[in-house]
TrEMBL record:
UniProt keyword list: Decarboxylase, Lyase, Pyrimidine biosynthesis
CDD domains: OMP_decarboxylase_like
Annotated protein name in UniProt: Orotidine 5'-phosphate decarboxylase
Stored PANTHER family: OROTIDINE 5'-PHOSPHATE DECARBOXYLASE (PTHR43375)
Catalytic residues identified in the record: K95 (proton donor)
GO function terms (MF aspect): orotidine-5'-phosphate decarboxylase activity
Catalysed conversion reaction: orotidine 5'-phosphate + H(+) = UMP + CO2
Pathways involved: Pyrimidine metabolism; UMP biosynthesis via de novo pathway; UMP from orotate: step 2/2
GO biological process terms, semicolon-separated: 'de novo' pyrimidine nucleobase biosynthetic process; 'de novo' UMP biosynthetic process
Family listed: Belongs to the OMP decarboxylase family. Type 2 subfamily.
EC number: 4.1.1.23
Residue ranges annotated for the Orotidine 5'-phosphate decarboxylase domain, each copy included: 17-255
Length: 270
């Protein structure tokens, strides 16, 4: 199924705009997993199984797996999600950005090796750096636009011909770059005014919104600024606040409680 169709179906079926980010820090895994060679897989798999009915998608962050030499566990995790929870899209958070020939290999890595349904991409090298991803017309390509970190303003707020650079990225993504209808944008929860501006530019394009939970983004402000006309349009990511809601053998149950509470808080504002 096309990523956009799968996402839209999941928004409705799960009644959820929540995305659980899978950022497994080995130093924060529960003690009973520390000696397992597949500790990262075991941790993330249990989180996934406990929270699947509360989410619209999952978002593993590739750096946490690669730094621990656990890329094989990432492959197994995404395979597990697809087999155990069919219909839930997986966004590989990789933020790749390079020249076309290298981007083609990164696209192959994301979509062929890992089997991700979508990938995050840095578009600031221009159109030819994202075109290899767009060739996978059934997969999602989610471009960095207005990121949640404070330093993003150093470049993303630069004036380019009468508009801010992040606004230009949003305009390109909504228009000439989106021939296959598979683009989305990353806009941080910590900047609701910019979320509203991106929504104004892009219509109903999906927005991946990191920054609630541990980063302090306000859920009500995000919904007011960014929901689409039908009350969806958002992929609201929470990682640490859900992953590390508990640190004992009942960590998955604690994560489930946190995920359900977050979904309820989001839906209350829709």
């Amino acid at each position: 199924m096309h990523f956009m169709n799968a996402l839209a179906e999941r928004w409705q079926r799960a009644d959820s705009l929540l995305c659980v980010g899978l950022d497994p820090d080995p130093a924060r895994l529960p003690a009973h997993l520390h000696e397992r060679p597949d500790a990262i897989l075991a941790f993330c798999r249990d989180i996934v199984d406990a929270t699947a009915d509360a989410v619209c998608c999952f978002k593993p962050q590739i750096a946490y797996f690669a730094a621990a030499r656990a890329e094989d566990q990432l492959e197994d995790l995404i395979r597990h999600i697809h087999e155990r929870h069919p219909g839930i899209p997986v966004i590989l958070d990789a933020k790749r950005g390079d020249i076309g020939s290298t981007a083609a290999q990164y696209a192959r890595e994301a979509f062929r090796r890992y089997g991700a349904d979508a990938v995050t991409v840095n578009p600031y090298m221009g159109r030819d750096s994202i075109e290899p991803y767009l060739e996978y017309a059934d997969r999602g390509v989610i471009l960095l636009c207005r990121t949640s970190n404070a330093g993003g303003s150093d470049l993303q707020f630069l004036d380019v011909g009468g508009e801010k650079l992040y606004e230009r990225v949003a305009r390109l993504a909504a228009d000439e770059w989106n021939a296959s209808g598979n683009l989305g944008l990353v806009v941080g929860a910590t900047f609701p005014d910019e979320i509203a501006r991106v929504r104004q530019i892009t219509g109903d394009m999906p927005l991946l919104v990191p920054g609630i939970g541990a980063q302090g983004g306000d859920i009500a402000a995000v919904l007011a600024a960014g929901r689409s006309r039908d009350g969806t349009g958002l992929i609201i990511n929470s990682s640490r606040a859900i992953l590390y809601a508990g640190d004992g053998e009942d960590f998955a149950a604690a994560a489930r409680f946190a995920a359900q509470a977050t979904r309820t808080a989001i839906n209350r504002c829709r």
